[in-house]
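FAQ

Q: What does a record look like?
A: Structure on top, sequence underneath. For example:
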């Protein structure tokens, strides 16, 4: 059975036209799902009865359901969702409260597992099971809001998977999330993070409602990137830089560079200087990410050798970047104790494994 949340508004309008209904019916259903949060088609009394019946017979309302939630002391919540079509994914809710500024972010998954096999990432160790559907992506947000009772302010595609390898579905889910009629999110509060799938960065710059782009850089040297990120063999740092420049020129949205700091690998002053030179080509900021160990997975090769830089080194690296005029922040390790921090999403307990 298809899920109704796989449909963007335009697709729903087309479908209703085929059925012989007027387009505004699609809008009514869209409002009912995303604004009124109906649980069943029968609750949408704005629609004619026979249309409600038809929808009940041919469409599922939900693409996922909640299996388990774990909360960390810092308020981070990790959700394990089972997918109606089989398998499971994790998403992470990260509250952030700095007085006047308040953010409630959901880190969503775009794939079950990931094919790219970065040596530092637990999701990569799982390999790829499949791409998520549009409904499975959008439903992570609706379910997180339902469970927490909170309205989210931001979405980051930094959960399981490489979003640009599930391009169509990610872009369609953005078209729902950033739809101004239902106003779930400002498009500038949606971030897609990529390990550097260069041609797709060019494509993402051209979508109807462009969103923020984060690039997982981790080094400005091809040699180092290639040892920790197999995808770097395909697209070189120069090409990545050109794609980032193009992205900024088309969207006017500053780029975020993600940089995991590994002890002795990419954490020298020279590395900071090279990074500063690299990121200066367009307005941007650097997020320094502490390396979260993934010892709960079987490791081999370089994965075994990677060590986190000390917190003193992280601070020092940030200061170096600041001294070169680069905006740099240290990403918090929200959810570390529940294996919900960056790169740790891999169904780290047996209970989750049963759903794979
Ligand atoms: N596939 C995308 C998005 C998911 S990964 C990407 O690679 O960008 C989200 C972020 O977590 C990326 O910046 C990634 O480099 C980072 N990450 C992966 N494993 C990590 C780990 N063990 N510790 C810290 N960050 C990690
Ligand atoms: Fe995939 Fe991103 Fe993990 Fe690399 S870091 S394996 S691209 S999810």
């Amino acid at each position: 059975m298809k899920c109704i949340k796989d449909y963007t508004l335009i697709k729903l309008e087309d479908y209703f036209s085929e059925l012989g209904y007027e387009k505004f019916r699609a809008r009514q259903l869209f409002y009912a799902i995303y604004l009124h949060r109906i649980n069943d088609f029968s609750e949408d009394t704005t629609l004619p009865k026979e249309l409600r019946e038809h929808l009940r017979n041919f469409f599922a309302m939900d693409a996922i359901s909640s299996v388990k939630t774990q909360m960390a002391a810092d308020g981070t919540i990790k959700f394990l969702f089972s997918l109606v079509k089989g398998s499971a994914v994790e998403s992470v809710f990260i509250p952030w409260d700095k007085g006047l500024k308040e953010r409630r972010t959901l880190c969503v998954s775009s794939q079950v597992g990931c094919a790219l096999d970065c040596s530092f990432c637990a999701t990569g160790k799982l390999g790829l099971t499949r791409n998520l559907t549009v409904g499975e992506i959008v439903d992570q947000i609706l379910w997180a809001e339902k469970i927490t009772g909170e309205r989210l302010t931001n979405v980051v595609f930094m959960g399981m998977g490489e979003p640009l390898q599930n391009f169509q579905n990610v872009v369609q889910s953005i078209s729902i999330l950033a739809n101004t009629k239902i106003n779930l999110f400002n498009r500038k509060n949606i971030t897609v993070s990529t390990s550097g799938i260069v041609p797709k960065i060019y494509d993402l710059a051209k979508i109807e409602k462009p969103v923020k782009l984060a690039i997982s850089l981790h080094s400005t040297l091809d040699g180092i990137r290639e040892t920790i990120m197999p995808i770097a063999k395909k697209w070189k740092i120069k090409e990545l830089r050109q794609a980032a420049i193009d992205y900024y020129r088309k969207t006017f949205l500053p780029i975020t560079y993600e940089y995991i700091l590994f002890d002795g690998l990419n954490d020298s002053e020279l590395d900071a200087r090279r990074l500063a030179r690299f990121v200066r080509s367009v307005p941007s900021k650097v997020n320094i990410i502490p390396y979260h160990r993934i010892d709960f997975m079987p490791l081999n090769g370089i994965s075994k050798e990677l060590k986190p830089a000390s917190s003193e080194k992280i601070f020092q690296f940030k200061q170096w970047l600041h001294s070169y005029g680069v905006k740099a922040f240290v990403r918090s390790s929200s959810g570390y104790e529940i294996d919900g921090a960056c790169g740790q999403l891999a169904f780290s307990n047996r209970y989750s494994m049963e759903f794979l």
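Q: Is there anything notable about this one?
A: Confidence is low (pLDDT under 50) at residues 349-356.
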